[in-house]
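Supplementary notes for students who missed Thursday's class. We covered one full example, reproduced here. Read the sequence, then the structure, then the short commentary at the end.
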Amino acid sequence: MKATVVGLVTPHVLKLIDIAKQAESGMNVDWHLRDAVARTLDDLGEQFNKRELLAAYIHGLQVAASDAPPTRRVYIGKLREAAALAANDPRARE
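Structure (token representation):
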């Protein structure tokens, strides 16, 4: 089976979507969010095309946030926070 950008990135984006949904229910997810982003950066950073993968990951989080209804402020905020964490991490710029 050939690994694709979508196949490698989608599970990581879905994990963050799940965490953002938990935040909506009042759960404190800050540690889980930072951990998930860090693990993703480590996992995708081992691939030969890590720049493309990390760009797709950040873009996927931003799109998920922009596609959400505006009434889901906590959900949107957590997805944007995750995208910002990933974009500002030094591993994403290597």
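Commentary. The chain is about 75% helix and 0% strand. The two ends are 28 Å apart (CA to CA). If anything here is unclear, bring it to office hours.
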